[in-house]
Structures are given as C-alpha cells and as structure tokens.
Design goal:
Layout (H helix, E strand, L loop, with lengths): L5 E8 L10 E14 L7 H24 L8 H10 L2 E4 L9 H13 L12 H19 L5 H8 L3 E5 L2 E4 L12 E6 L6 H11 L3 H24 L2 H18 L9 H10 L3 E4 L7 E6 L2 H7 L6 E5 L1
Antiparallel strand pairs: 1-2, 2-3, 2-4, 4-5, 6-8, 6-9, 7-8
Length: 314
C-alpha cells in the first residue's frame, strides 16, 4: 500500500469552547506533513529509532482497545506489529506540542494503512461517515492527550476544511480564498515553546466546574467564537476583526495560563494598539499563536522580533 502524506491542521476557531458545543472551524495546513515509511527523509537515525519505539508503545495501547472490544472497528494489529518489527516509522516534519496535529496526522496515517472497512477519504463523506470517523479517531487519539474530540485526526485524514456547527453537525465547507493583494489577514507566531495539551485541557475542565466561569464561557466566549466563524466564512473582515478582538480580550482575562508568559505583554500590546489581535492555536501553553490584523505590514512592524508567517490574506 502506498504511504500517503498527511498534512497538519490548524483549528482557526473553537479551542476549548468546542468542549461546550460551540462552533469550530479547522483547516489543513500543508506547511507540515508526515507519513508511515521504512526510510526516513526528515528524521535523524536516533529520531527514527525513537519513532519506531513510540509506535511499538502505541501499538500495545491499540491492542488493549482491540482486546476489550473498545476500538469500535476492525484493525490489522498483526500487520502493524509486523511492520514495527521491520522498522516502520512516522517520518514527520510536524512539530509536537504546537497545536498543529502531530498526533492527529499519525492517527490518520495508521487508520488509512491498517483499518478494515475504512471510510475512504478520496470521496466526500456525508455527516454520518464524518461522525463515525470522529468517534473512531477520538478513541485512537486518547492515548496522546488523555482525552480527544477526534477532530485533529479527522481533519488530517479528510484534508478539507471542516465546519463544526455542534457535536452532531460536522461537514466539509469552503473557506474564502486568500487574496494575494489583501492588506489584512491571519498569521502565525512561533513561541519556540512546546505546549502540553492534557494538563491544559484538564485545567479548563476544572475551571468549568465553577458556575461563574462556565457562565462566562457560555455568555461571552462561545458567542464571540461563533461570530468569528460566521464572519470569516462570509468574508466580512470588519466583523471578523471586531469579534476576534473580543475573543482575544476574553482569553487574556480568563485563560492566561494557556498563554506563554513571554507573550502576555505582546498579546496586550496588540489589543491596546489595535494593530493585531492574538488567540490560541490549539490548547496553548506554547507552539503557535494565531494573529489577526487589519494591516499585516503594520502588525509585522510591531512584531519585528518575531518571524510571523502569513497563512491567509483578506
């Protein structure tokens, strides 16, 4: 079977709020990718050995799910274990702990290669197939984060922008084309730190046990998030930036542990100058931050100490 490349992903909107049934919007990010192979192009010899060892540990986890009947679909464990003994690795350029789907791409690659009766990603799957895949991927990815929505592997597998309207309504969606001459846009900042998803998600869940905080999530965070998505899909830049600003305010006020300390002043500076607005990319704690700017060149000048990477113009 051909070893396919699986691209990374970016969750543009929906981090944390999606746990409480907000909308979400996730897109493929082809800057990074990975594939199952016996010959490495991107990893050192030591990294390749570690990848193989990690796959062996993960296979043991999958075997437990299979033995307990908890995986929910047929999986060729014999073929996987044989390939591991032969030295198969996940040859990936996707950074771990960056919120761009390193574990999601691995899960997608394993499903594509070893799952029986799989939902094929060459076709445009319907809602039922998407929800089925999401549930299957969630069980597979729990190994890496303690809990998983299944969204990261889903987007890495389908390689198409997905709109999550709620937990029961997920579908492929067209996003506005990036305008080459656009002044405004979306960019990434590399924090040069690795984030750990599990502890941060648990912190959010613990905060949500406080009625006051959960009320704020429902009354403020979710509406700001959902309005961002609606405005972005309609190509309404003014409304998008207005709601991103409010969402950015909410995150720095209530979820500052998810923002690396070095970037809290940078975050506040953007809100004060209104040159750019930052938000989390994934669970936070490190990795990338997402930025939105009405004028990208002005934002670049204010963030000159960082090498921002533009991913969309409007």
């Amino acid at each position: 079977m051909a070893n396919k490349n699986f691209k990374s992903k970016i969750l543009l909107f929906g981090e944390y709020s999606i746990i409480h049934n907000s909308m979400g919007l996730t897109i493929p990010f082809d800057f990074y990718k990975g594939k199952l192979t016996f010959k490495s192009r991107n990893l050192s010899e030591e990294e390749a050995k570690q990848s193989n060892a990690d796959l062996k540990k993960y296979a043991a986890y999958l075997q437990q799910l299979v033995d307990k009947g908890e995986l929910g679909f047929g999986f060729d464990m014999e073929a996987l274990n044989t390939d591991i003994e032969k030295g198969i690795i996940f040859d990936s350029t996707i950074p771990q702990g960056y919120g761009v789907g390193s574990s999601g791409a691995l899960v997608a690659a394993l499903y594509e290669r070893y799952a029986f009766d799989k939902v094929y990603n060459e076709e445009k799957p319907g809602t039922d197939d998407i929800l089925k895949l999401k549930a299957q991927f969630a069980r597979m990815e729990c190994y890496f984060h303690g809990t998983s929505s299944g969204l990261d592997p889903l987007i890495c597998y389908l390689q198409h922008p997905l709109l999550i309207e709620n937990k029961e309504a997920i579908g492929a969606v067209q996003i506005p084309e990036s305008v080459k001459t656009g002044n405004g846009g979306i960019f990434l900042i590399d924090t040069k730190q690795v984030g750990k998803t599990g502890p941060l998600v648990q912190l959010f869940l613990d905060k949500c046990k406080e009625e006051g905080f959960l009320g704020l999530v429902r009354k403020e965070m979710i509406p700001f998030n959902d309005n961002c998505i609606k405005a972005f899909l309609k190509g309404e830049a003014k409304d998008l930036l207005s709601n991103v600003k409010e969402l950015s305010h909410f995150l720095i006020a209530h979820l500052d542990p998810m923002i690396p300390k070095k970037f809290r002043k940078v975050w506040k500076k953007g809100l004060e100058s209104e040159s750019y607005y930052l938000k989390l990319c994934g669970s936070g704690g490190g990795g990338y931050l997402l930025g939105f700017a009405p004028d990208l060149e002005k934002a670049r000048a204010e963030l000159k100490e960082f090498n921002i990477e533009i991913i969309h113009r409007f």
